[in-house]
Specification:
757 residues, alpha/beta, eight-stranded mixed sheet, seven-stranded mixed sheet, 23 helices, binds 4'-deoxy-4'-aminopyridoxal-5'-phosphate
Length: 757
């Protein structure tokens, strides 16, 4: 065998791998490998079945096009391969294949923008289109050459297929898998973000058909390919960087044998209410059972309200909500989308609210509702609670709402936070949860000197540039990041909810790339516990953070004070480095935000006296910590303590959930009710449980499931119960047994009218 033997074997190896994984078919495409140290390369022959291919069939060519070896004619794309090797010294393996997803993008003439960090790292900033030229022509070679300078490793050829490059065979196959994943996800985003009608029907059908056949296989392949490379990288990184990072950053030595147990089905339900007096959760949900029920819900056909009944509910809005419609129609002219608050986006149109008191709301048409929105969570005492309103009014009467100077209630509120949540050794008041997340991440980066931030896929942590990543739906990276430059999210990563192994993987990768500043989690699970965490999850995340020298940030915007005055950190017994506050921190009054945490981290914010110039993490805000907000927070939380409001609200949540479960059982419905104290979930569609691990289901079911959820919300409203988007409810101290029983009667009439009930 000549010295070309190993290169020819490599070509066959790469072809077999691609064939097995479904990236190459029959005779389409071509693969080549650069012969080390020479101006030659080994390439597949023209129109020859990959299934039969042997090393002896592989051709060897010079970069000048001369065929040196091989009984068959080399692939007609050989000149394109030669051009790549000539212009890109870093490339040693080239794959050209007509794999389906990127090909669809070629037909649509759409390059793939920068969607997520792995893509940019391995494939290049964007996957560009190479202009059309017939196969095998010098025009195609020229068009490809024009693009090579970008250094990217993947291109979509307009004459079908893709060109994927790598420094070695493993890298090239990895890049191929990554391109497949990126192309598939981008295609799904295009198909599902409301612009599906712009995607030509034949392409939609090809994508769906292909997906239907390949979904499982593909997901496994992509994961396998990516995981193999990530594992290899992590191993290499560990060897080279462990010493260095341990010494330099003072991290604890990686202790592979003390991996926190991933909390799986074996996780026992949490402690009982007796053990945890003072918290809103009387018994922690049986998390594996909740997921089993949710999975079963998502795997079943939708069970909407019978059409005629639903039309009746919609008729309510036309007949009884005329003034609301007039006002919100007018608002459409002046306010983008007609509403200022995301929670007000209600179907069929938003209601205009005139009065709120305790557990009830009244709209401008005089209709009365039971209020389970409770402004999205801040009012554990009930809406517009009189004793707090009176005391706040007294403060405002005296000092006005703001002076810009220090006010005693700032101190009083900080003392209160510190007493109830001792992990908050210091506290800084801000204007919103969003601002507070920004501030906490800034402090974490300033304190640790590291850049990466890891969040849970699907979690909402406000709308700052760096956090609009993997929003609402796990695995969607930058799908919602319109108007946000790539750089703003380039140091944010997401991991799948509850997947501690995935979190560990991200932390390992980040360690090689400079380290993780912080892991941010909502301790009850993303979206107020819509995907609840196993009881031991937070403690396991704490351990991982300690192991990798990252700060742990608890986003307690929803759970803070609502779950109990000690917050989720008190309930779970886990001490975060930083805590984000919002909502309850001002009891429903404006400018609700704050960060609390370890003294030395919080010192990053120090301004004025004692702050070292050039070292502080800059934050500000004209209205931050104004007397109105601080006094409102102080009075509301003090009142919550006096009345035991979080526990009472939690009991109302328990009663509501138990009643909903009874209705579900009576009518044999697939719906799922569960609660974490005063946060009650009623899933009738499971739309929030869709994710990109199941792309076909996501693509097909997102819209109809979302629409049914809107309809359920409208039916509850028409029956006199306001919920959050038709699937979540916040209870308050004002929810007496009578209020809950009244609400359950209304739920009964809606739920008994679903199809098949
Ligand atoms: N984090 C979580 C968990 C939230 O639920 C929210 C708001 N719903 C935020 C952050 C953002 O807070 P804000 O709306 O005050 O900016």
């Amino acid at each position: 065998m000549s010295h070309y033997g190993p290169s020819r074997e490599l070509v066959v190896d790469v072809c077999r791998t691609l064939l097995e994984r479904g990236y190459l078919k029959a005779t389409e495409g071509n693969v080549s490998v650069r012969v080390p140290g020479e101006d030659t390369f080994a390439i597949t022959p023209s129109s020859y079945d990959y299934g039969k291919m042997e090393p002896g069939d592989i051709c060897v060519l010079g970069l000048d096009g001369r065929q040196i070896l091989g009984a068959r004619k080399a692939s007609i794309e050989a000149s394109m391969h030669a051009a790549v090797y000539e212009h890109r010294a870093d490339v040693s393996v080239i794959i050209h294949t007509h794999q389906p997803y990127a090909s669809a993008l070629a037909l649509m003439e759409r390059p793939i923008p920068a969607l997520f960090d792995e893509q940019v790292r391995y494939l290049g900033r964007s996957v560009e289109l190479v202009s059309y030229a017939p196969s095998g022509t010098s025009f195609l070679k020229k068009n490809v050459t024009k693009k090579l300078a970008s250094g990217a490793n993947a291109y979509i050829l307009e004459n079908h297929g893709v060109l994927v490059l790598g420094g070695d065979p493993e890298q090239a196959v990895h890049n191929m898998a990554l391109l497949e994943k990126v192309a598939l996800d981008y295609l799904l985003a295009l198909l599902t973000d409301g612009r599906a009608e712009k995607v030509p029907l034949p392409i939609r059908e090809i994508a769906f058909q292909k997906l239907r056949k390949d979904e499982k296989k593909l997901a496994a392949q992509v994961e396998e390919a990516c995981a193999a490379r990530e594992a290899a990288e992590a191993r290499a990184a560990q060897e080279t960087a462990a010493e260095e990072s341990r010494a330099a950053a003072g991290e604890r030595a990686p202790a592979e044998d003390v991996v926190p147990q991933p909390a799986g089905p074996a996780t026992p339900a949490g402690p009982s209410g007796a053990q945890l007096a003072g918290y809103a959760i009387s018994r922690y949900p049986d998390v594996p059972d909740v997921y089993r029920r949710l999975d079963s819900l998502v795997s079943q056909p939708l069970r909407p309200i019978r059409r005629a009944v639903m039309d009746g509910y919609l008729g309510y809005f036309d007949d009884r909500c005329r003034r609301s419609r007039e006002l919100t129609d007018q608002a459409m002219e002046l306010i983008p989308g007609g509403v200022q608050h995301n929670l007000a986006f209600n179907y069929p149109f938003p209601l205009a609210i005139e009065k709120a008191d305790g557990a009830r709301l009244w709209d401008v048409d005089g209709n009365e509702y039971i209020d389970f929105l409770q402004a999205g969570g801040p009012t554990v005492l009930g809406s517009n609670y009189e004793p707090v309103r009176r005391q706040v009014a007294e403060v405002v009467e005296q000092s006005g709402p703001v002076t810009g100077l220090f006010h005693e209630y700032e101190l009083k509120l900080a003392e209160l936070v510190n007493r109830l949540m001792p992990a908050c050794e210091m506290f800084r008041m801000l204007g919103s949860g969003t601002e507070s997340v920004m501030a906490a991440i800034r402090a974490a980066r300033a304190h640790t000197g590291k850049k990466w931030v890891v969040k849970v896929g699907g979690a909402y942590h406000g709308w700052s540039d760096q956090m609009v990543y993997g929003l609402h739906v796990p695995g969607t990276w930058r799908f919602e990041a319109k108007g946000i430059p790539f750089g703003a999210t380039s140091r944010t990563r997401e991991f799948f909810p509850n997947d501690l192994d995935a979190l560990r993987g991200k932390l390992k990768q980040n360690r090689r790339l400079g380290g993780t500043a912080a892991v941010i989690v909502e301790p009850i699970g993303p979206e107020s516990g819509t995907r609840p965490v196993p009881f031991g999850f937070n403690a396991a995340v704490r351990e991982l953070c300690d192991e990798f020298g990252a700060l742990l940030i608890f986003d307690e915007v929803v759970s803070g004070f609502r779950l109990g005055l000690g917050g989720a950190q008190g309930y779970f017994g886990v001490r975060p480095d930083l805590t984000i506050f919002g909502k309850c921190i001002t009891g429903g009054y404006p400018m609700a935000g704050g960060v609390g945490g370890r003294r030395e981290v919080m010192a990053s914010f120090a301004s004025g006296i004692g702050g070292k110039s050039g070292e502080r993490a800059y934050i500000g805000g004209t209205l931050s910590a104004n007397p109105l907000s601080c006094a409102a927070g102080y009075f509301a939380i003090t009142e919550m303590e006096r009345t035991n409001a979080p526990v009472l609200a939690g009991l109302a949540g328990d009663r509501l959930t138990a009643g909903l479960q009874r209705i579900i059982d009576q009518h044999d419905l697939p719906f799922v009710a569960y609660n974490q104290g005063s946060i009650v979930h009623l899933e009738t569609t499971g739309v929030m449980l869709l994710d990109l691990k199941h792309p076909l289901r996501f693509a097909k079911e997102m819209k109809p499931r979302k629409h049914m959820m809107e309809e359920m919300g409208a039916a509850y409203t028409a029956s006199g119960v306001i919920t959050l988007a038709g699937s979540r409810m916040y209870t308050s101290m004002a929810d007496t047994d009578e209020v809950i029983d009244d609400a359950l009667g209304r739920f009964e009439s809606v739920l008994s009218s679903v199809e098949g009930a």
